[in-house]
Amino acid sequence: MSIQSIELEGDECCQPGSTVRGRVVGSRIAGEVRLFWNTCGRGTEEVGVVDRQPLSGDGRFSLTLAEAPFTTQGTLVSIEWGIEWVDDSGDAVDRREIVVSPSGRPIRLARVDEPKSSKSKRVWKWTR
Amino acid sequence: MEMDALNARDNPFATRRVERCLVFDPTLVGTRWSDLLERWDQLGRRACVVGPHGAGKSTFLDAFVDRLDVPVVRFFFNRDKRCLSDDDLHKMEDGRGRIWMADGDTHLGFSERRRFHRASREAAGFLSARHRTRGLPVLLRLKPDLALARVLLHRAHPEGAPSLEPLVVEAFRRRRGNLRHLWLDCYDHLAGRR
């Protein structure tokens, strides 16, 4: 069985607003590639699809990054960027993670020592 | 950032990981999908799943959707959303002949709740997740216990479960069985915040 995968031109570190180029490799070139970011962490995951391109022929693609958000790593939340190849039925074929940041490295968030999310519900106390 | 605090993406109790790892398993509450589907039909496809906060009601609805042979329309209400939105009204109109799954419909005000329930009679079925039965027969009653929490802990984080057990025991009691808050406590612990 041939390997179906995404190959990128250059490395995985990209500048915000730049163009990501590459190609998909496999026995059957079909579906589309999607450029997206997603959150990950303590809260509900959010996803934003920034660009997408149908695949055909040689499987080459060119996707345009947004200026934000940057790839971010923290203990409460992380933001990840990726390129996903989905087939005609919408099933994921392959996924490649990329780093989107002016510095070429993920932005590291400082730890939050007293986050609001960890506070207990207000407790009513009877007083005389 | 402390070296021993897990990043959000590596934390086994990140919300998306918990949602994917801890899908509803009826065997853990003493039943089977076949029994639940049979009971659903016996109840005329109008029923509720009841349980306290964080008992797994929404998790059950997410899994039950995949077991049904009829398209499903989902509705979500809570303390901050107590009215029928334009989107809800649109779904109600388009949802005739489909199964309605309502998460928290008892939060609706009296007149809106009555409107919603009357409209649901045009649906192919109605399943509500709520804290109390309020006139609907019970398809499933959920009340987590510590044994269940332990099993789920091992499923979510097999390699770290032994070291987290004392935390889970204490947190389960403090959170009064709210599994959602329990996993957040585990998350915070591994993130170095507790």
From TrEMBL, chain A:
It comes from the Bacteria. This is Uncharacterized protein. It comes from Haloferula rosea.
